């Protein structure tokens, strides 16, 4: 288990052992925390043959050895073969009502191994409204000993009626020092501590996303793109390159936002401590010369632009056009 999940894993396992875990749990937290792994561990703990056996008792100590990892149920879960464990995982845009109907049907049958049934719904926010409504009844009247684990990094997109029927558990963003130590242990290196902290900041504190970002060499791309953005006012011929670069990934606009925020901080004469792009102070200082009014306006408009692009799912928006207008305004 990832070090930042040890404590929540133990707390949740204790609830399972003490039979205080509700039949529906909503596990919330940002992307890249390892929610899937934690969900798997909890599912295994629920199914482990030692969880509710009398001789183990229900002391807090028991939580430390659940799931045991070697009973028949644990071995089946680890092999991805437990007939009472059902995992909904999809690369599609949505989880359909048919998928949820099949799941609720399966949950209503009795458990094969007599230890209850567990369903895990990953990225639960992908459920269509019809799918969510189909799940409601099961959440209200769970069949037998079944447990539902809903996992989501965007729980606000779930129907309020789904959220309110679940025991909710928010996984916090882990402490930066803990994550940086873990990254070093993984052999994921950067050119210095400022670079590591910046990588964590641009990934909003997410350990696994930071690892993937550094491993993929994305940090180089960020430095290059932000450099081009800073040069745009003097070199307008870069407009097309910058525009294409910013549209590659939604997170690229966040990088630019962090640059403008840091530049504004410097333009206001505030301390350099707490810069989000700690590894790019000269670049931030360069952009800070745009001045406070220009930076404030550019930042406001960029935040608005990101919001428009994010909420435009399914609606016709021309992101290229909107971005070009913004870039032209700031140069
Ligand atoms: Zn076991």
From TrEMBL:
Sorted UniProt keywords: DNA replication, DNA-directed DNA polymerase, Nucleotidyltransferase, Transferase
The record's section on Gene3D superfamilies has:
1.20.272.10, P-loop containing nucleotide triphosphate hydrolases
Tell me if Transferase is a UniProt keyword of this record.
yes
The protein's matches in InterPro entries, at most eight in alphabetical order, are given as: DNA_pol_HolB (IPR004622), DNA_pol_III_delta_C (IPR015199), DNA_Rep/Repair_Clamp_Loader (IPR050238), P-loop_NTPase (IPR027417)
- Which EC numbers does the record give? 2.7.7.7
Q: Where is the DNA polymerase III delta subunit C-terminal domain?
A: 219-330
**What GO molecular function terms would the record report?**
DNA-directed DNA polymerase activity
Q: Does the keyword Transferase apply?
A: yes
Q: Which reaction does it catalyse?
A: DNA(n) + a 2'-deoxyribonucleoside 5'-triphosphate = DNA(n+1) + diphosphate
Q: What is this protein called?
A: DNA polymerase III subunit delta'
Q: To which species is this protein native?
A: Oceanisphaera ostreae
């Amino acid at each position: 288990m990832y070090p930042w999940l040890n404590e929540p894993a133990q707390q949740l396992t204790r609830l399972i052992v003490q039979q205080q875990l509700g039949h529906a749990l909503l596990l919330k937290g940002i992307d890249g925390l390892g929610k899937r792994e934690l969900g798997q561990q909890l599912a295994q703990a629920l199914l482990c043959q030692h969880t509710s056996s009398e001789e183990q008792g229900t002391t807090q100590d028991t939580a430390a050895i659940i799931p045991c990892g070697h009973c028949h149920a644990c071995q089946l879960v680890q092999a991805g073969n437990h007939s009472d464990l059902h995992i909904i995982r999809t690369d599609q845009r949505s989880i359909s009502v048919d998928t949820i109907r099949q799941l609720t049907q399966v949950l209503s049958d009795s458990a094969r191994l007599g230890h209850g049934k567990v369903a895990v719904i990953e990225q639960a926010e992908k459920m269509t409204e019809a799918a969510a409504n189909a799940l409601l009844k099961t959440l209200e009247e769970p069949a037998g000993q079944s447990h539902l684990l809903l996992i989501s990094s965007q729980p606000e997109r779930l129907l309020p009626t789904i959220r309110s029927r679940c025991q909710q558990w928010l996984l916090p963003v882990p402490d930066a020092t803990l994550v940086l130590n873990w990254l070093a242990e993984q052999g994921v290196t950067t050119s210095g501590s400022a670079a590591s902290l910046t990588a964590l900041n641009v990934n909003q504190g997410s350990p696994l996303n930071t690892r993937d970002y550094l491993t993929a060499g994305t940090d180089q791309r960020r430095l290059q793109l932000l450099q081009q953005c800073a040069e745009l006012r003097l070199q307008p011929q870069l407009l097309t390159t910058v525009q294409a670069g910013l549209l590659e990934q939604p997170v690229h606009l966040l990088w630019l936002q962090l640059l403008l925020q840091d530049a504004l901080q410097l333009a206001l004469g505030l301390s350099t401590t707490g810069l989000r792009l700690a590894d790019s102070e000269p670049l931030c200082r360069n952009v800070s010369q745009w001045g406070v009014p220009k930076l404030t306006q550019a930042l406001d408009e960029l935040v608005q632009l990101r919001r428009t692009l994010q909420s435009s799912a399914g609606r016709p928006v021309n992101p290229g056009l909107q971005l070009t207008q913004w870039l032209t305004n700031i140069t």
